[in-house]
Automatic annotation (TrEMBL):
The keyword Membrane applies. It is found in: Cell outer membrane. Pfam families: DUF5723, OmpA, TSP_3. This is OmpA family protein. Residues 492-607 form the OmpA-like domain. The keyword Ribonucleoprotein does not apply.
Length: 607
């Protein structure tokens, strides 16, 4: 393995591997293959799988640092490998049944079988260790990522010989690490290997078996083809490591097979989960793995490392304390290449012999001593461009300025050289439609309008050539002379007066009789139609009674009509009421009919 640059590396590797497995097979049947059994036995519905494979790998790995942001560190790697298949062989039973009748004589001991058997590249179980010679090839891959959380990453930095920053590679810098990978993706194809399927519905004696134990002799071949495919033991791995303190760690590891044990001619790992506390220093390590292994159950082990040598077992403790279904051991030699490390007590990256302040961290340019802060603005003098002026660190220790004096600091001023309001980020307001009303005040910023109409043009909704601002009837076509309202016709005035004359009051009182409400409602509708016109309501009496009393009564009657019209929605400002008593008679007060005519209310249009 060698580095390509500071963040990536390349490695070449090769290895030879061999895996044999037997799954779902009767122990008695397996024993019978190996040696004689002196008793009757029977096994049913066997879906066994036996496979043996050996191959070599030639590969290249590429790894690189994907992220290095101080506390957060991520790296990943990919391996691509060429696979050379040395040999392959498998046998798989399908609903296979076997009955063995023992009579104490090879000529009479009888084995009866049924079901199907599929074989690949082997001719009999006796020849399993020496399958038909042929070779195969294929390609495989491994992929993995590791993330490290490094809250104290600064402690592991130092200044290298070139003056740059490096990490002490021999030290674990993480507080927590998690890795995930998928390994052994791929397969090997044996193009010349023969696949045979046999019908096993038959029986034979021990003598017949010993004479020729081949599948062709014992069973009926029902099909034959070429090409055998061997799947690599693809697996998914998850590893988490917690650094509890400087020397003690807790590791969680899981390995899960991505290949089914039911697949023919495939290799697979046993699923397992392990939790391992460990003690670790530079030249010594102790670890106690506690794991749960598929098919084997709970196990406990022990291991140690002394210098480059490590020895251990994942099941030795379990095996010593009780019966165990698994036993393993491992032995290895790991030779590290350590980098020289400078002595730096204050971890400022400067060798203590060159550090003027070895106990206090400080920058290289100040010979390892901390810099002062003359203006107490929190920025050291070596970085402060305004040493004697208090200013924020984001402005290099200098106070913010306001060149145009508009009370918007230059850092926030979009137009630092032109005076502008705060709400427009220091820029003067524009006038997009050039109508003299700035856009912040212009309700129609893209249309030329009038200043006194908030920058919008005046409208004339009813199209009578009287602008709405001057039109007293903006929704009704009218005349310019009548302020945009239709001119009231003399016939309408006559109708109002006819209505008013028919309004009846209680004798000697100003209260309108209920029978007259319909007439007053009709008068109100006419006034609403001509909303630009104002009206005068004039009350009159005959000459009976004192003149002062008649004036007062006529005024109250005129006011009563005004009050009623206001209650029907007529604006009070459009109405005026007045009483004239017996003045302006329209008939002779000498007759009863004349007096009745003189007791009236007249409506006049006020221009």
């Amino acid at each position: 393995m060698f580095n390509l640059n500071k963040s990536s590396s390349l490695a070449l590797f090769t290895r030879a591997r061999s895996i044999t497995h037997l799954s779902n097979i009767s122990g008695k049947a397996l024993n019978d293959i190996q040696e004689d059994i002196n008793e009757n036995y029977e096994v049913r519905n066997q879906n066994f799988s036996i496979a043996a494979n050996a191959w070599a790998e030639f590969g290249v790995s590429y790894a690189r640092i994907l992220m290095d942001k101080g506390q957060h560190f991520l790296k990943g790697g990919l391996s691509a490998k060429y696979l050379y298949g040395g040999f392959t062989g498998y046998a798989k039973g399908n609903n296979f049944n076997l009955k063995y009748d023992y009579f104490g004589n090879d000529a009479t001991n009888t084995t009866t079988t049924s079901g199907n058997i599929e074989t690949g590249n082997i001719t009999s179980l006796d020849d399993f260790d020496d399958p038909t010679e042929n070779t195969g090839s294929g390609f495989g891959a491994d992929l993995g990522f590791t993330f490290e959380y490094r809250p104290d990453h600064q402690k592991y930095k130092y200044t290298n010989k070139e003056g740059g920053t490096s990490y002490h590679k021999e030290q674990n810098k993480y507080k927590f690490k998690i890795g995930v990978s998928i390994t052994d993706i791929g397969a090997i194809n044996y193009k010349d290997a023969v696949v045979s399927v046999y019908n096993a519905n038959t029986s034979y004696t021990d003598a017949e078996y010993d004479a020729d134990p081949s599948f062709d002799n014992l069973y009926t071949k029902i099909s034959e083809s070429k090409s055998v495919r061997f799947k690599l033991p693809t697996a998914i791995h998850l590893n988490a490591d917690w650094r509890m303190n400087k020397r003690f760690y807790l590791n969680l590891n899981t390995d899960f097979s991505a290949v089914s044990a039911e697949d023919k001619n495939s290799s697979y790992i046993n699923n397992n989960v392990s939790l391992t506390p460990r003690y670790e220093v530079k030249w010594l390590g102790l670890y106690v793995p506690i794991s749960y292994l598929e098919y084997s159950g709970l196990q406990a082990g022990f291991g140690f490392r002394v210098g480059p040598l490590f020895v251990g077992s994942g099941s030795i403790v379990s095996a010593m304390l009780s019966e165990t279904q698994a036993l393993d051991a491992h032995l290895g030699l790991k030779i590290p290449i350590y980098q020289s490390r400078i002595k730096d007590i204050d971890f400022d990256g400067i060798n203590d012999k060159d550090d003027n302040c070895p106990d206090v961290a400080g920058p290289v340019e100040n010979k390892g001593c901390p810099c002062g802060d003359a203006d107490n603005d929190g920025l050291t003098d070596n970085l402060d461009k305004c040493i004697n002026e208090f200013g924020p660190s984001e402005n290099n220790g200098c106070p913010w300025t306001d060149k145009d004096g508009d009370k918007v600091l230059d850092k926030d001023d979009t137009c630092p050289d032109v005076v502008g309001p705060v709400e427009n980020k220091g820029c003067p307001w524009g006038d997009e439609d050039k109508d003299g009303v700035t856009d912040n005040l212009d309700k129609c910023p893209t249309v030329i309008g009038e200043k006194d109409n908030e920058g919008c043009p005046y409208t004339d909704k009813d199209g009578d050539k009287v602008l709405d601002k001057d039109d007293k009837c903006p929704d009704v076509v009218g005349t310019i002379e009548n302020y945009g309202c239709p001119v009231i016709d003399t016939k309408v005035i006559k109708k109002l007066n006819d209505y008013s004359k028919s309004v009846l009051f209680d004798s000697g009182k100003a209260t309108v009789k209920a029978d007259s409400y319909v007439t007053l409602d009709a008068m109100a509708e006419i006034m609403k139609e001509y909303e630009a016109n104002n009206f005068s309501i004039e009350g009159y009496t005959d000459n009976v009674g004192k003149p002062e009393s008649n004036i007062e009564l006529s005024a109250e009657r005129a006011l009563a009509i005004k009050t009623y019209l206001i209650s029907k929605g007529i604006n009070e400002n459009r109405l005026n009421s007045q009483g004239f008593g017996a003045a302006k008679p329209i008939a002779s007060n000498k007759t009863k009919a004349g007096k009745s005519a003189n007791r009236r209310v007249e409506i006049k249009v006020v221009q």
